[in-house]
Please model this.
Amino acid sequence: MKRTPIIAGNWKMNNTLAESAALIEALKNAGNKNNAEIIVAPSFTSLAKVAELAKGSSLQVSAQDVHWEDKGAFTSAVSPVQAKDAGATHTILGHSERRSVFGDTDEILNKKVAAALRHNLTIIFCVGETLEQREANETIAVINSQIENGLKGFTAEQLKGLIIAYEPVWAIGTGKTATPDQAQEVHAAIRATLAKLYNEDFAQATRILYGGSVKDTNVDEIMAKPDVDGALVGGQALIAEKFARIINFN
Ligand code: 13P
Model:
């Protein structure tokens, strides 16, 4: 099955308004030879500005996270309603930094999934194992339980359009990339799990992105793998020329 590739940039806690504006303007001229879907996830302070500047281009804008409630007394949090209002069409959920630094559990993520679906935000749902878990041969079990518990209670119909990002924790920001074969192995396992939990059509249609030290120099070999449908890029998404090269992978 032919799946449209997705190249997404997670800007994390980086960029002033001016830096965000300069980056999105530069990306408008990046070209897109693979006709990929291109998504950027700025900080909330830059989201409305970036969405406004992206208007009329093919660039799409994502939140990095959303709260599970629509509004209320949740100091510092941002609701899906606010993210949408600011121009987001997508939201990342379950990024490993959210899981490990901010304590997002599968139960919390399951509520955030509900919130995003309620407001028609396309979810980029992140999963991944730690080095310890990999060395203990728990990779697939860990990822299966993140998927099963995080998405619990929703049907394939409700989850239509879901994007999964496999981000091994040990590869994030470390310069250590999973080998293309390691990525392929886990991506194929994720697709099999989706087929088992939902159905084969859903599994075949779901885009599975790889994230973790994706660079201009390694994107081609990673994207060559049959179950790798795109990349979720951190560090190199902040550098226009690097991200442009990743968008235009060979
Ligand atoms: P790096 O590309 O900096 O390793 O970050 C990956 C990531 O966490 C994207 O969400």
About this structure: The chain has a mean pLDDT of 97. DSSP finds eleven helices and eight strands in the chain. Residues 180-197 form the longest helix (18 residues).
